[in-house]
Design a protein that fits this description.
The chain is an all-alpha fold. The chain is built from eight helices and no strands.
Amino acid sequence: MEETLLFVIEVLGTVAFAISGIRLAATKGFDWFGAYTVGLVTAIGGGTLRDLLLDIPVFWMQTSWYLVVTGLSLATVIVFRSLLVSRDRILFVFDSIGLALFCVIGIQKTLAAGYPMWVATAMGVITGAFGGVIRDILINDEPIIFQKDIYATACLAGGLVYWLMAEAGAEAAWQQISCAAMVIGLRIASLKYNLQLPKV
């Protein structure tokens, strides 16, 4: 049951991140193949690095679902281009959802592999943020993780909330929900109140 839930979360995160990547590629005038590639690496980049570091089978190589879902995400952006491409808030929404879901997955998989919570928190950040780094490099933008925007910091905060909930003895589902809510909530707060980390 837990493995099925994690798979569903990972697929939903793939959809969210794929759409965010494809949508951004569309604003740059990429063709369908280029947009699909950007969407795919956005969705699988962080999880791939996580699985390699944890020395476990790379998740997207175990089933073709992730490639298919990315294709469906491309079709969605093509069909609803006027809605998805022209509005920056749409990118923010899908990016935040994908960030939150992949942060949860990164933490869960790391704990399942037997690593301590501090490693799981770091892997949550990597799983959530690294795909966006690759996306931004491919479209020739400065990676959002290195800008003033609250991004990786949101994953870190989510990981800390997960940790606290676990220490408090909360059920796994509440740990996951609390982590995702913190990530999304902090992203929304950063947009609404213009929160940002100080520059060096």
